[in-house]
Amino acid sequence: MARRFDGDRLVIASHNPGKVREIGDLLAPFRVAVVSAAELGLAEADETGDTFLANAEIKARAAAAEAGLPALADDSGLAVAALGGQPGIRSARWGGPEKDFDAAMGRVEEALTGIRGRRAHFACALALCWPDGHCETVEGVVHGHLIWPPRGTLGFGYDPMFVADGHDITFGETAPEAKHLISHRADAFRKLVAACFAA
Amino acid sequence: MARRFDGDRLVIASHNPGKVREIGDLLAPFRVAVVSAAELGLAEADETGDTFLANAEIKARAAAAEAGLPALADDSGLAVAALGGQPGIRSARWGGPEKDFDAAMGRVEEALTGIRGRRAHFACALALCWPDGHCETVEGVVHGHLIWPPRGTLGFGYDPMFVADGHDITFGETAPEAKHLISHRADAFRKLVAACFAA
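ok -> structure tokens follow
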């Protein structure tokens, strides 16, 4: 049995205000008030893990210990099978300091030159950690394949080159409502809520 | 095995432009172009069924036969256990000709006077029918209980008096992103897509 969240304040271990607000909306039904790591003046933990789950846990564990409150962190990205899971935990870094995902997609395509397999998945890891060091983790995934050239202006990151299994268009061409039905992020949050928040 | 949709045009058996657009967005990833019953000049079928599923099927079957194309219809509403499932298929009609859901919620509360049980669920039935009369149907549900007085201005219909299991706030107080994670409508569409649209 997962440990249940029974407090009323939760630190979101992120310095991205948009992400903090979005997670706050998702957890509002459980009367959880979220506070961001930035508001608390917490340091950003180094993401030294080898997996999405490890990095989410590192961030949540550090924030919980420093704040003395439960903390939630996420880590997500694109894993390409034929590239051994790359860009994976370096998904954002492949965009360089300017987070240029057009460039990042170009790098993925270049790495795939001469390789036939184009299977890929998006993953979203969530870690909920308490100040005593206990953590609950979940991971959501959506499987698909990559196309080239990228198509669509919706979504973000690698969305314009990713076609989910069963879909005919890229995530960059998919309305948010349709993407949210099957996305790695929605999958992860449904699992976390079922394990730790729902009564 | 469910019959799969393999056309490129689908009639949405609804005269509500907002609903047609929303369903079009949800099915766009499968390269399905939707056309509304209103655009085709189809008659609105009488909802003479006893259940959400029966009414969805009546509407989809009539539209498919008249248009000579596959057709999708939905029927949804609130079912209160202690009222034998009412308002159920009459959920909209309890709002009267003006579809006044404040009045409809008042009628539900009045019907519950002196009754202890406040369990309820929202259901969304979807029927996909072909011109040859074959239909595939699915139903999504979200369980919860009713509170009084209603709270919140988000959502629509009976949302302000419905608290989903595990939640502490009403659907009327819940951000759309959080509601869509667990709603009866999202549940139904995930099932339909898995059965009839995804490859």
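Chain A touches chain B at residues 22, 25-31, 164-169, 173-175, 177-178, 180-182, 186, 189-190, 193, 197-199 (CB under 8 Å).
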